[in-house]
Amino acid sequence: MITFELNGQTVMTEDPPDTPLLWVVRDTFKLKGSKFGCGAGLCGACTMHMDGQSVRSCVVPVGNVAGKAVTTIEGLSDNGSLHPVQAAWIANSVPQCGYCQSGQIMTAAALLERNPNPSPGEVEDTMAGNLCRCGCYPRIKAAVLAAVDATNAVEEAS
Amino acid sequence: MTLQHVSRRSFLAGLGITGGGLVVGLTLPGCSSEAPPSFPTADFSPDAFLQITPQNEFVFICARDEMGQGVSSGLATLFGEELDVDPARFEVNFPGVHSAYGNPAFSGIQSTGGSAAMRGHYLPARQAGANVRSLILEAAARDLNVEKSKFSTVDGNVVVGGERYPYASFIATAQTLPIPEQSPMKTPGEFRYIGQDVPRIDAAEKSTGEAVYGIDFDIPGMKYALMKRSPVFGGSVQSFVKDEIERMPGVIDVVQISNGVAVVAETFWQAKKATDQLQIEWDTPALAKFDTSDLRADYQQALDEESGSTTDEEGDLTLAFRNVDTQIEVDFWTPYLAHAPLEPMNAVVKVENGEAEVWTSIQGPPFAQASVARALNIDKAKVRVNNAYLGGGFGRRLIATHVAEAAEIAAATGHIIKLIWTREDDIQNGVFRPASLMRMKASVDNDGIINGWTAKRVGGNILPDRMVGALPVVAPDFVPDGVLNSVVGLADTTLSNWMVDGSSVEGLAGDYDFPNRVTEHVTVNHGLPLGYWRSVGHSYTAFAKESAINVLAEAASIDPVELRLKNTRSNARQHNVINVAAERMKAMDAEKVGSLGFASHGSFHSYVAQVADVSVHGADIVVNKVLCVVDCGRPINPDVIRAQMEGAIMFGLTAALHGDLDIAGGGIVQSNFHDYPLLRMNEHPEVEVIIIDSEEDPTGVGEVGLPPIAPAVANAIFAETGQRLTSLPLRFS
Ligand code: FES
Ligand code: FES
Predict the structure, then answer these.
(1) pLDDT band at B96, cuts 50/70/90?
(2) What are phi and psi of B275, to 5 degrees?
(3) How far is CA B522 from CA B289, B336, B536, in A?
(4) Does domain B8-208 have CATH number 3.30.450.20?
(5) Is pLDDT at B4 greater than 50 in this prediction?
(6) Are B275 and B226 in contact, with CB atoms under 8 Å apart?
(7) Min Cα separation A33/chain B (Å)
């Protein structure tokens, strides 16, 4: 039995400890927003936050998650409001097929958490680990930078 | 009469229908593979489906599959425009198999491809919306006892005498009336949504993780299956060791099916671990003796020695090539490619009492239906299909072998089966964009007129391969299976030897005046399964054609853009996009980082020209910026068009800079994104899109941005380095 925190709630699973976190979240806890793209840490579609760091959940055994706090796309925003990154995504009509976008958004949110003012180059370097087969890169970059601006504007106003 | 309401959940899950509301656009009773709400069908002539709930909500059933190309926003815009409802208010659902959902511009088939959605539905979807609006007005006239001409409408409300009445308030009367057929539509001057940057209607659910894809279907009781397939296409199982695998944790069953061996387990991970341990002896099919170098040698021999079939011929080449001032001849190579949509292939199938139900994401539910019916040897009408958002299609999801596999496993084990392909399965066992070797020979006279053009392509033909999947969809039900199977077999073998699929050569001699020209094709097919890949033949012919144009211009010391303008006089719209791009190129020239390359190519009834700004650092090719000018007729949603141009350019750059599949011992060498890399964020160019303001009917946008990018980059590399690269991916040897 492995216990961890999932989107603020304590959960327990009997899945074997070598089961990747991605499948535990998707199939045991039925949160389907995180996606399977490569299963090898190469595409970022499965990105979640573990204790605030973005991780590729397809290569994190759930045994390593015991006692940690995991956030998925479903838990990114509080009670129905949108995270600034999500709001920027919608405003820029970023998604095409959308399959990569949960992972993109989780990577971007973690970036802004640790660096509220990334340069365009830092955005590109950080987001380079998330593949988008539909080629939404120009809009992903624009949306991350828009989220930076929006967050700064809110902070200046308050 | 029962009023009906379909919510997204109940629709996707194929559950019963509850609540009240107006349903319009039903057809054809007696189709058992779906459960349309029970509304009298004879009174309705559908093109798209709509339901209005008592709360004045609008449920829109999107006839085309949404794989990222924005078709749900596009069709909702067409329908909403004439219905006079903001498309942002539509809740979109995707239907199962039904003849009402065919695309008139795609041979009437209920499938999504060929960049044909706006072309096929522009008028029908608007007409359907206009008819419903007229029906509501007719009902309102009766209910309020006011003349119809006194009404106007605003966003789902009937307005009269300063009062607003939601459409929903008239549904009881509307249901008793026949739906009008040819209600007047708006003139373009009256459009409120068409031509505007209407926000994508799926952006919110795709930014919150709520959008449901095929891989997200979770059917109670389902078990997980993974498979091992022959590493060489066409190989069959000789033997495998079952017992130790069956003893592994969570494993329920290990079964052999026609494509290989499947492991069924309680969880994905248990199935994955067991499949990894599975040892199978395969026989060695004919393909097993081939490596990439053998394939290329066969292609080269065919190119040099075989005359092939002539697919297009015009004018007199002997005369043209005799009198010329400048002549060139260049060969171009493009490799096999995988589609690699980010959502790997997957399907859930339940088989029970001689019937089957499928949950998947597919470019055409009828393909899933037909392949399951064939796999289980049951009637198509006994197979019900549920579709969802597609995590990318690009042509890959026109093919439903994975659905048939899941059906076979379900039938063999008695379980509801969720089959998931791994990325390795996707890259090694998929269907492939065929490789091509192309020889372009051209001549230009002293006035800059291209007076001779011959193009010869060697490679596989897709259509005979795809007939295997398509024939059962289009064949009428009364054709007995035995007959169908033998026709399919014929398509597989005989046809591939004499028939040249139009897509094999499309674009090789297109766009230009070319008064004297010949296109030839030599079919060489080693047996790898082939499939339609975003922009199909244009994905390689544009590279050969537009590179050759620049080689010719260079040889004759003519400006390459000038040469294009001089030789497109009979093709006004292509000529125009070249002109517009050429004008903008002048400004780019002042701001450029590296060197500029030009290419233009029309496809899917649209016209595109691109300029790439490219730098070369050692062996590294850096694409700094791309300008894309597109004429796709009247723009329905300019922002979706821009997104499709951006996306197609990135997709094309993946192929131009990285895309390569090697074959060793008949199998694909590459296996995942480490050795089959996609373009990444830090490699993407800035993209500027110019959309021609056209009043022609709308045409394709999903694929047309792709063909010109590889030659534009190759032409820029030549300008930057003086080296002419003639193979994809572009590499310095
Ligand atoms: S699925 Fe985890 S990185 Fe690709
Ligand atoms: S939107 Fe399709 S993979 Fe990114």
Answers:
(1) confident
(2) -65, -40
(3) 22, 17, 18
(4) no
(5) no
(6) yes
(7) 4
Mean pLDDT of B200-216: 96
Tokens (6 digits) for B640: 């979706």
- Chain B residues within an 8 Å CB radius of A90: 199, 203-204, 207
- The answer to whether B396 and B314 have CB atoms below 8 angstroms apart is no
Three-class SS of residue B62?
A: coil
Beta-carbon contacts of residue B479 (< 8 Å; ≥ 6 apart):
none
Extract the tokens encoding B30. Answer: 């007696």
Residue matched to tokens 């039925």: A30
Test mutation, A47, A94, A96, chain B, max B CBs within 10 A: A96
Asked whether residue A83 carries a pLDDT value surpassing 70, the answer given is yes
Domain boundary among A75, A106, A121: A75
Rounded to the nearest angstrom, the distance between the alpha carbon of A22 and the centre of ligand 1 is: 9
Pairing of strands B90-93, B49-52: unpaired
The residue among A75, A94, A123 that closes a domain is A75
Q: Which residues contact B298 (CB under 8 A, 6 or more apart)?
A: B524, B526
Q: Which residues contact B131 (CB under 8 A, 6 or more apart)?
A: B45, B179, B180, B181, B182, B183
Residue type, B378: I
B197 neighbors B639 (Cβ within 8 angstroms): yes
Cα B340 to ligand 2 centre (Å) = 11
| B67/A98 touch (CB, cutoff 8 Å), yes or no | no
Q: Is the peptide bond before A84 cis (omega within 30 degrees of 0)?
A: no
Where along chain B do its domains lie? Answer: 8-208, 214-285+345-420, 293-337+433-461+500-721
Read off the pLDDT of each residue in B41-58 and give the average, rounded to a whole number: 60
Q: In this structure, what CATH number is given to the domain that contains residue A23?
A: 3.10.20.30
Ligand lying closest to the C-alpha of residue A34? 1
**Cα Dmax for chain B:** 81
Q: Do A69 and A91 sit in the same domain of this protein?
A: no
Give the closest ligand to the alpha carbon of residue A42. Answer: 1
Residues near A96 by Cβ (< 8 Å), separated by ≥ 6?
Answer: A132, A134, A135, A136, B68, B69, B70, B643, B647
- Contact list in A for residue B673 (CB cut-off 8 A) is 38, 40, 42-43, 131
Positive or negative, the Cα torsion across B30, B32, B38, B39?
negative
| Averaged pLDDT for residues A22-27 | 98
Angle subtended at Cα B391 by Cα B633 and Cα B408, rounded to the nearest 5 degrees: 120
pLDDT over 90, % of chain B: 75
Its pTM stands at: 0.93
Q: What is the ipTM of this complex?
A: 0.97
Q: How far apart are CA B194 and CA B203, in angstroms?
A: 18
Residue B43's pLDDT is what? 25
3-state SS of B626-672? EEEEEECCCCCCHHHHHHHHHHHHHHHHHHHHCCCCCEECCEECCCC
Instruction: Round to whole Å and give the CA distance between A65 and B575.
Output: 60
Written as one letter, the residue type at B459 is G
Domain B214-285+345-420 -> CATH class: alpha beta
